[in-house]
Design brief:
The structure holds two protein chains of two kinds. Chain A is α/β, with parallel strands linked by helices. Chain A contains ten helices and ten strands. Chain A has two domains: 3-81 and 159-252, P-loop containing nucleotide triphosphate hydrolases (Rossmann fold); 91-158, no CATH class. Chain B is mainly alpha-helical. Chain B is globular and about 60 Å long. Classes of the chains: A alpha/beta, B mainly alpha.
Chain lengths: 253, 324
C-alpha cells in the first residue's frame, strides 16, 4: 500500500512557543485516522501546516501523492486534492446552500467539468441537506452548517479529507448521523479521512488508527483500543492518576 | 438561469424609455443630463462588479475615469489620432493602472487596497498639476473632437455602451467567475480551502472593472471635449459608491438605476438652490438607513415577482382543477 501523505520533521514556532514539535505522520490510502489531543495540543495548527495556511519551520517534509507541498499556497494544496473543513464553520455567507457546494468544486481539477450543479445536489442529498438547496447559508442551523462544510469539501473530489472537529457543538443524534455519513463517504469513494476530535466515543468507533498529540508532539500512535489505555494519553487528558485509566477506557468504549 | 423573459423585457423597457425620453421632450439640456447619467451608470456598474461582488471597497474609482479621459485627451489632441482610438487605448491604460494597484495590494488583507485606490486618484490629480507643461495643468487638455457630431447620436451611443457593458457584466456575474467573486466576499479562507486562487480573481475583476470605467472616462472626455484634473476628484468616487448603495450592491443592474436616479435627482433639485445639497443628503441618509439593500434592485425584484406571479396565477388553477 503506497503512502498517500508522508510528513516528517514538521515543526512550527510562534515566537517562543514551540506549537508543533517534530511531528511525523504517514497516511495510507483509504485509512480513517483520528488526531486526538487536549485543547491547545496543536491539532488545528498541524492542519494549517499541511494545507499551506501556515508555513512550517524550515526542514519540514510534506509529500502528498509524490508532490512536495511545503511552501505551496493553500489554494494550490487544495487543488492537488486535500480538502479541509474548519473548526468554526466558515460557509460562503451571501450564497445559497447549493452555490456553496458548487464553489467547492470550482477550484479543483479533479472536479472540473460535468454538471457541477447536479453533483452538488447529489452531495447535498447525501449529507442530508436535500430540499435546502435554495436556502441562504446564514439561516442554517449549526448542525446543518457542519454538513454543508463536509458537502463543500467533498465537492472538490479530494483524495484526502481533513475534518476539524466535525462533531463539535452537535447533539448525540446529530453526531450519529454525521459519523454514519463519514463512514459512507469513506466506504463509497475509498476516501482517506483524517479527523480532529474530542468526542471520544463516536470518534473511536469511526477511526482505524489514532495519533495522539500533546503540546505539539506525537505522544502515542496506534489502534483506538491501545490509545485509550495508553498512560501518556490518559495523563494528557486527566493528569497523572493511576486509577483514572479505567474510567477513560470505559467512557471511550 | 440568466436571461429570463421577464428580465429581458424589463431591460428592453428600460432602454426604450431612456431612448424615448429625449424624443418626447426634445431639449439639449435633457440630452446632456441623460448622457452624464448614462456615463455615471457605466462607472457605477463597473464599481459594483469588482467591489460589490468581492466586498473589497474601492475608494478611488475616479482613478480609472481620469486615466481613461487623459489617455483620450493625449491621443486625440497631442497625437492627433482619431477619437475612436481613444476607447481601446483608454481600456488598456486603465487596465494597466488596475494591475499596478491591484497586484501589490489585493494579495493583502486589510484596508490597503481601498487606501491605495484613494491615494492613487489623489496622486494622479496632483501629478496632472505638477506636470502642467504636458497636461495643461488646471485647465487640462482642450479641443478634443467629438466621437459623434450630433448630441443625440452620442447619447444613443453611450446608452448602447451602457447596455452592452451591463449585459456583459451581468452575464459574468452569473457565471462561475461571478460565483467565485461572491464566494470571496463570503469567506476568503474557505475559497482557498476549495482550491481557488483568491488573489487572481480579485485582480481580474479589478482589471475588468477598471477597463470599462476607463472607457467611460474616454467617452466623457469626448463628450466634454476637454479633460481636467477634476476628473480624478475623490468626490466623484464617493458619488459613484453612493449610486451603487442606492441602486443595490452586488446586483449589477441596480447601480445603473441608482446612477441615473441620482443624476436626475440632482438636476431636479437645482430649483431649490441652496437647499439642494441638504435635501439630497437627507434623501440619501433616509435611503441608506431604511433600505440597506438599496432602492432600485429590491424594487425591480418586487415588480418582477408581481409580474411572474400574475402569470403563474393564471396557470396554477388549471393544474389544481386537474389534481382535485
Amino acid at each position: 500500500m503506497t503512502a498517500l501523505l508522508e510528513v516528517a520533521n514538521l515543526n512550527k514556532h510562534f515566537g517562543g512557543l514551540h506549537a508543533v514539535k517534530n511531528v511525523s505522520l504517514t497516511l495510507a490510502r483509504g485509512e480513517v485516522v483520528g488526531i486526538l489531543g487536549p485543547n491547545g495540543a496543536g491539532k488545528t495548527t498541524v492542519y494549517n501546516l499541511l494545507t499551506g495556511f501556515i508555513a512550517p519551520d524550515p526542514g519540514a517534509r510534506i509529500v502528498f501523492q509524490g508532490t512536495n507541498v511545503v511552501g505551496l499556497a493553500p489554494y494550490r494544496v487544495a487543488a492537488l486534492g486535500i480538502s479541509r473543513t474548519f473548526q468554526l464553520c466558515r460557509p460562503f455567507v451571501g450564497l445559497s446552500v447549493l452555490e456553496n457546494v458548487v464553489v467547492g468544486a470550482l477550484g479543483s481539477r479533479a472536479a472540473a467539468g460535468g454538471d457541477l450543479e447536479a453533483r452538488a445536489r447529489g452531495l447535498l442529498a447525501q449529507v442530508g441537506l436535500g430540499g435546502k438547496e435554495g436556502v441562504p447559508v446564514d439561516v442554517l442551523s449549526y448542525g446543518d452548517q457542519r454538513r454543508l462544510e463536509i458537502a463543500r469539501a467533498l465537492a472538490a473530489r479530494p483524495a484526502l479529507l481533513l475534518l476539524d472537529e466535525p462533531f463539535a457543538g452537535l447533539g448525540s443524534s446529530e453526531i450519529a448521523d454525521l459519523s454514519a455519513l463519514i463512514r459512507r463517504v469513506h466506504a463509497d469513494e475509498g476516501l482517506t479521512v483524517v479527523l480532529i476530535e474530542h468526542k471520544l466515543r463516536e470518534f473511536m468507533r469511526l477511526v482505524d488508527r489514532v495519533v495522539a498529540l500533546d503540546f505539539g508532539e506525537v505522544i502515542a500512535e496506534g489502534l483506538p483500543d491501545e490509545i485509550v489505555r495508553n498512560p501518556a494519553v490518559i495523563e494528557a487528558y486527566i493528569g497523572r492518576d493511576e486509577s483514572a485509566g479505567s474510567v477513560v477506557a470505559s467512557h471511550a468504549a | 438561469m440568466f436571461a429570463k423573459p421577464v428580465d429581458l423585457a424589463g431591460a428592453a423597457v428600460f432602454v426604450a424609455l431612456m431612448a424615448a425620453l429625449p424624443l418626447a421632450f426634445p431639449s439639449n439640456y435633457l440630452i446632456g443630463v441623460l448622457t452624464v447619467s448614462v456615463l455615471y451608470g457605466i462607472w457605477a456598474v463597473t464599481w459594483d462588479f469588482m467591489s460589490g461582488l468581492t466586498g473589497r471597497e474601492n475608494f478611488g474609482h475616479a482613478l480609472f475615469i481620469g486615466v481613461g479621459a487623459y489617455t483620450a485627451g493625449f491621443m486625440n489632441t497631442t497625437f492627433g489620432l482619431n477619437g475612436w482610438w481613444s476607447l481601446p487605448a483608454s481600456m488598456v491604460v486603465a487596465t494597466l493602472f488596475a494591475l499596478l494597484i491591484g497586484v501589490p495590494t489585493l494579495r493583502l488583507k486589510g484596508p490597503y487596497f481601498a487606501l491605495a485606490m484613494l491615494s492613487g486618484s489623489v496622486i494622479m490629480q496632483r501629478l496632472m498639476l505638477i506636470f502642467w507643461e504636458q497636461t495643461g495643468g488646471e485647465e487640462g487638455l482642450n479641443g478634443l473632437t467629438p466621437l459623434i457630431r450630433s448630441q443625440i447620436g452620442f447619447y444613443y451611443f453611450a446608452l448602447a455602451a451602457l447596455a452592452a457593458i451591463t449585459a456583459l457584466l451581468l452575464a459574468l456575474s452569473r457565471s462561475h467567475f461571478g460565483l467565485i467573486l461572491r464566494a470571496i466576499r463570503g469567506d476568503e479562507a474557505t475559497c482557498q480551502a476549495a482550491g481557488i486562487n483568491v488573489t487572481f480573481y480579485k485582480i481580474a475583476s479589478l482589471a475588468i472593472s477598471g477597463a470599462f470605467a476607463g472607457a467611460g472616462g474616454a467617452m466623457y472626455a469626448h463628450y466634454q471635449l476637454q479633460v481636467s484634473p477634476q476628473l480624478f476628484a475623490v468626490v466623484t468616487s464617493i458619488t459613484i459608491i453612493t449610486m451603487v448603495y442606492v441602486g443595490g450592491m452586488a446586483s449589477i443592474y441596480g447601480p445603473v438605476g441608482g446612477a441615473i436616479l441620482l443624476v436626475l435627482l440632482t438636476e431636479l433639485l437645482r430649483n431649490f438652490g441652496e437647499w439642494r445639497l441638504m435635501i439630497y443628503s437627507c434623501a440619501l441618509i433616509l435611503i441608506l438607513f431604511f433600505l440597506p439593500g438599496g432602492l432600485v434592485a429590491p424594487a425591480w425584484r418586487r415588480l418582477r415577482a408581481a409580474l411572474t406571479e400574475r402569470r403563474t396565477a393564471r396557470t396554477v388553477p388549471a393544474s389544481q382543477e386537474r389534481s382535485a
